[in-house]
Amino acid sequence: MSRRARGALFGAATVVLAVVLVSAVAELPRPSAPPPRSAKLSTSVSLHERHGTDTVAGVTFDLRGFDTLGEELILFVAAIGSAVLLRAQRDPELLERAAHAADERRPRTASALRALGALLVAPMLVLGGYIVTHGHLTPGGGFQGGVMLAGTLLLVYAAGQMAALERMHPQALVELADALGAAAFALVAVGGLVFASAALANFLALGVAGHFLSGGTIFVLEVSVGVEVTGAIALVLNELLDQTLIREG
Amino acid sequence: MTALQDVVLVVVALAGTATVTVREPLRQAVVAGFFGLALSVLFFVFGAPDVALSEIVVAAVAVPLMVLLALAKIAETDVDEEDDGA
Amino acid sequence: MLPYLVAVWLLLVGLYGVVTSHHLVHLVLCLAVAQASTYVLLLAVGYRTGGKAPIFADLPPGTPVVDPVIQALTLTDVVVEATVTALLLALTVQAAKRFGSVEPDALGALRG
Q: What is the DSSP letter of B62?
C-alpha cells in the first residue's frame, strides 16, 4: 500500500476514533463527583493498618503488591533483553585500554564540567539513597531513587572519568545488583506466604506511622526495588556506553 | 479545574504536538525532555507527587539519555555499513 | 472535560507521528507521546476538586485526598514506558546494523 493510501486510510480512521473517544470520555467522572470508595478504603487501610504515611507506596507495595512484582520482573527482563541485543564480544582488557585511550584522546572535558561532576556525585548518591529509603513516608520510593542512583554513572561519564569507572569493573556489580533486587522482592513475597497469611502480607513489626522504621515490609520492598532499578538502568547504560567506547578506542 | 490546571494542560498539549512535529531525532530528544517536564508539572498540579517524581526521572533523564546513546550508535553503524559495502 | 480532551488529543497526535514517521527513533518518541495520554486520562479520572496529595506525613487523617490507587496504576504505567522505550531503542540499533537504514519503510522482512 502506498504512503498516500496509508495516509488517507489513517485520516479516515482517526476521525472515527476521535468521535468515539470524545463520546466515551464524556461519560467519565468529573472532579465534582464524590470520591470513589476505593480511595477512602485504600487510604484508611494504608494509614491505620499498615502505618505508612505515603498511601501511594502503601497501595503499590501492599494492596496491589502483586502488580508491582510483575512490574519489577518487566524491568528485569527488559534489562536482560537490552543487554542481549547490545552486548558486543567483549574483552575486558580491550575495554580498559579503550577507556584509557578515550580519556587521553578526547579533548579535555572542560575543567568546570569535571569539577562539577566530581562535586555532584556524592550529593546525588545521598539524595538517591534518601529518596529510596523514605518511600514509605514521603513521595519517592524505590523506582525514583533507583534511577537517580543509576544517573550517577552517567555523571561520571559526563565528567570524563571513564578510566576510573572501568577499573571498578562495574559490569559485574550492576548485574549482581539487578539480580539481587529482583530476588529480594520475590523472597519477601514468598516470606509473606511462609510467615503470614498471604503472599506479600506483612510479617515485620509495623511501628508508628510517620517514624522512619514503620510500614513493616514496605521499607524492605522499597530498598529491594531501588537496588534492582539501579542495576537494571545502569546495565542498559553500561551496554550502550561500552559499545561507544570500543568503537572509538 | 483551576486556572493553573487549565494552563498546564494546554502547555502539555502544545508540547506533545511539538514533539511529534519536530522530525529530526536529535532535536526531538530535547523537546521530548521538555514534554516530560511539562507532564510532571501537570502531575504536581493534580496532586500526584510520587508520579511526578517518576515522570521527571524517566522522561527527563532516562529516555533522552537512551535516545542520544542509540543515535550515536546508529550513526557509527551506518558509517560502518557503507564502508563494508554490505 | 478538558483533561480528557487533552488525553484524546495526545493519543491522536502520537498515533499520527507513529504512522507518518521517517526515522525509527522519531517513531519511538512519538510512541512515548501516545503513552503519555494514558497518564493524563488516569489522573483526570482520579482527581477530585479540593483533594490534596495522598501523603499523610503532614495532613491530619481524614482530609479529602486524591485517589491513591489511580496513582499506583500511573506509576506502573511510567515504569512500563521506560522499559518499552529501552527495548525499542535496542531493537532500533540492531535494525540499523542489520538493514543499514533507519527508515521504517526500508526495513525488509526478517530472514532467519
A: I
